[in-house]
Specification:
globular, 229 residues, 18% strand, alpha/beta
C-alpha cells in the first residue's frame, strides 16, 4: 500500500527580532516594544531566505500568531509563493509567558504589511489577540498546543502542506505535545534557531511503515545558505 499523507506540517520560528538582538541596547521600551518586538533587518533577511528556499513548494495555508515578528516572518515567506495566500492569524500560536497587560495589535496593523490577513476561522476574540500562560503552567500551555494540533488535523486531511509561524517556547510545547510528551518530563530541550523549520508529516494510519506521525526535520536551517545570495 502506498503511504497516504493527510497533513504535511511546517512549523517555523520567527526571524530575529529586536528582542533577540537585545533591543540595540535600549532600556526605555514601551510595553508593546518589549512584548511584541518587530523583526530586525537580519530577521527580515532570514524570513526572505526561507521564502526563497520554499519558492517551489506550494503551500496550501499559512498560520501565524498575532505577534508582529511572527506575522511579518510569514508574510516574507508568502511573498515567494507561486500563488497568493491568505495569512490566518491564530492567537493560540502566541509565545509562552506573555504578560496579560499586553492585549496585542489589531489585525489592521498586521494588514499594513500583509493585506491578506484574517483571523483563523473559529479563533476570533473581542477581548485580546493573545493567549496567556506562564512557563510554570505547562499543563495550560499543552492544552493550547493540543488545540492547535486538533484544529489543523480536523481541517486538513488530504495531503495539504500547511505552515505555522510561531515562537521558540511555544514551538517546544507544540513539538513535545505532538511527540506525546509533557514538557515537564522529557529531560531534554530543543534550541530553535530563528526561522528554523520543523516538519511533521501525518499519514493515514496503517499506510506508512514508520508510523502515522513522522518528523522529517527538527530545527532545520538549510535556507541560511541563501542569506548571502
Amino acid at each position: 500500500m502506498e503511504p497516504i499523507t493527510e497533513l504535511d506540517l511546517y512549523i517555523i520560528r520567527h526571524g530575529e527580532s529586536l528582542g533577540n538582538a537585545g533591543y540595540n541596547g535600549r532600556t526605555d521600551l514601551t510595553l508593546k516594544e518589549s512584548t511584541d518586538p518587530v523583526l530586525t533587518e537580519k530577521g527580515i533577511s532570514q524570513a526572505d531566505a526561507a521564502g526563497r528556499f520554499f519558492k517551489d513548494t506550494q503551500f496550501d495555508a499559512f498560520y501565524s500568531s498575532a505577534m508582529l515578528r511572527a506575522a511579518r516572518t510569514a508574510t516574507e515567506i508568502i511573498k515567494h509563493q507561486p500563488e497568493s495566500r491568505t495569512l490566518n492569524i491564530m492567537p493560540e500560536l502566541c509565545e509562552v509567558g506573555v504578560t496579560p497587560e499586553y492585549k496585542g495589535v489589531e489585525i489592521e496593523e498586521i494588514r499594513e504589511f500583509c493585506p491578506d490577513s484574517v483571523y483563523a476561522e473559529g479563533t476570533e476574540t473581542d477581548e485580546t489577540r493573545m493567549r496567556y500562560d506562564t512557563h510554570e503552567a505547562n499543563g495550560k500551555v499543552n492544552e493550547r498546543a493540543r488545540f492547535v494540533i486538533d484544529y489543523l488535523r480536523s481541517r486538513y486531511k488530504n495531503g495539504e502542506k500547511v505552515v505555522l509561524v510561531s515562537h521558540a517556547a511555544f514551538i517546544t510545547n507544540l513539538v513535545f505535545t505532538i511527540m506525546g510528551l509533557d514538557k515537564t518530563e522529557p529531560g531534554f530541550d530543543i534550541d530553535y534557531n530563528n526561522t528554523s523549520v520543523t516538519r511533521v508529516t501525518y499519514y493515514k494510519p496503517g499506510t506508512y511503515k514508520w508510523g502515522s506521525t513522522v518528523f522529517r526535520c527538527i530545527n532545520d536551517t538549510s535556507h541560511y545558505l541563501l542569506l548571502k545570495q
